[in-house]
Every structure is written in C-alpha cells, then in structure tokens.
Amino acid sequence: MSDPQVRDSSEATFAVLTERELAGRRRNEGARVIQHGEHYWEQTGAPGFFQPVHLLARLTPEEATRPTPLSWGYRAALTPESSASANGKVPVVRLSDLGGYGPDSLSSNRRNKLRKCQRLVRIVQLTGPALLLEQGYGTVVDALSRTQHKKVPSPERYAADVRKYFQSDHWCVLAGLVDGRLGGYLDGYVVDGVAYGFNAYYATWALPTNLSTGLVFEFAQICRRLGSVHTLVGGLDSREAPQLGQFKDDMGFVVDPIPIKWDMNPLARNVIRRHRPHAYYRLTGEA
Question: Are 64 and 87 in contact (CB under 8 A)?
Fold first, then answer.
C-alpha cells in the first residue's frame, strides 16, 4: 500500500511566499520576528542579532538600520544602486543559472553520480511527519556526528522541529529512499522568487548512492518548474570545508558576495572574529 505522506518528487508542490507571509509563518514556528519599516527581521543565531527574514531582500541604506535598540548586531543586503554604501558582503552560494539548470550544468564526474543516484534512490516529497519521526533522528545524529557543523538536537527538539515542517504549506522536504529506507533528506522554501535550501542530512551508509547529488539536483528542478523562482541559494560559503565547496562547485553553484550593511557591538565583533573566524566571514564577508 502506498504511503499517504509521500509523493513522487515529479509531483512536488508547495506554497511560494511573500516576505510578509514568510514572516507570519516564522512567527508561527516560534521565531522572534519584528517589523522594522517596510521589512520583517528575524532574530538568528545568538539572541539579539537580526537580519531580514528574506536574507536577499534588497534594502536601501535608510532601511538597513538597527531594527531594535536591544539588538547587538544586524545585517541586511542592499539594493544594487546602494552598493557604494555597503560596509561588508554576505558570501551567498547560488546556482549560476537556475533557468537553464540541467545535467549539462554539472561536472562530468557529477553527472555520472547523478545517474547512479537515479538508479538506486527514489526521491520523494514528504507531506507529513511519519517517516522523519520514525527514521529521521538517527539520520540526523549520524550526519551531524560526521560533519560536526552544528550540535545534535535532543530527540524532543528534533520531533518538534519536524512537526513544524507540516504545520504550514511552504516547506518542501525531499527525502531519498534506498530500498524503502530513509537515506537522507533536505528542506527548502521560496520567498519572492528566491529559493533557499536550508538543511540537509545524509546517512553515512547511504553516501555511496550519491543521494546528496540527486536531492540537490531534484530540488533545483522543482524550483524551475514553479516558474516564479529566479534564484536558488544553497547556503553561505563554507571556506573551512573544501569538500563541501567542491561538491557545490561540481553541482553548478558559485559564490556571489552580496553587498550588505552591518553593525555589531565592538566587544561581540572582536570575540566572534577571534574565536569563530569562519562564522565572522559568513556574517560580514570580512576575513
């Protein structure tokens, strides 16, 4: 019997949001979101640091100001016409040409891996939490133990986050099934023509199937089919992870430094720059 919470990726669908709609969804998910002028800002990372909920929303210098007096830091992307007012950059990783994206956009080695994935992995959109609640936590623990790019959540925190995916209709969660078993998954959403790939977790045992290649490629194809998406962002530049950088390069992604206006409390700036230089680079574009 077919799983009622799974649909083939060729039939994937999800809501495309405006910035205002995304702000409302993020509030419902428990994020701290405030309105500052005509834009919506979200607290991210350490409490007190803010950026627009739509990271690539382009603001004027007059709009890109401290969103609340209690904020110790903020950043916002500027309009192209305002780039001379920038004091930093956000090193966005995006597909160089989403509209023309296909197998020929990949390196030859990556095309071979895509074909292997397509033989071995069934890629589906999840429409409910059952599979992730049953098999997802082990996948996440495995993936984060290998990559160590963030802390492993508690089982309770993980289950709560999984349920957030399905309380609205804007998350696209793609999973790779190998002989019916969850090998990995990723998530993403679209706001004002920009698709953001957010999280991705791949089990170590499933890596030989190249499901990471297949999942990223399929998410891009879904975004293309939507018709209203012009940019796909695959995170920020992780210069400390050369293997990840090579993977994204093989997949057709490029690093695109977007001019921003930012500010931080001097003490916080010095601490982050000294003790977390790669995070500081992703926040400000500065080495």
Answer: no
Q: How many helices (H) and strands (E) does the chain have?
A: 9, 13
40-94 pLDDT, tens digit each: 999 998 899 999 999 999 999 999 999 999 999 999 999 999 999 999 999 999 9
Bridging pattern class, strands 33-36 and 39-43? antiparallel
Residue-range domains of the chain with CATH: 6-16+95-133+169-256 (3.40.630.30)
Q: What is the pLDDT of residue 2?
A: 59
Give the orientation angle of helix 155-165 with respect to helix 137-147, to 10 degrees.
Answer: 110
DSSP 3-state assignment of 286?
A: coil
How far apart, in whole angstroms, are the C-alpha atoms of residue 232 and residue 98? 7
Q: For 179-246, list the strands marked E by DSSP.
A: 181-191, 194-202, 231-236
Residue of 97, 94, 102, 115 lying closest to 188 (CA atoms): 94
CB-CB contact of 174 with 215 (8 Å): yes
Alpha-carbon gap, residue 22 to 170, rounded angstroms: 9
Give me the count of residues in the chain. Answer: 287
Q: What is the pLDDT of residues 241-264, one digit of tens each?
A: 999 999 999 999 999 999 999 999
> How much of the chain exceeds pLDDT 90, in percent?
95
Three-class secondary structure assignment of 20-64: HHHHHHHHHCCCCEEEECCEEEEECCCCCEEEECCCCCCECCCCC
Residue 1: is its pLDDT beyond 60? no
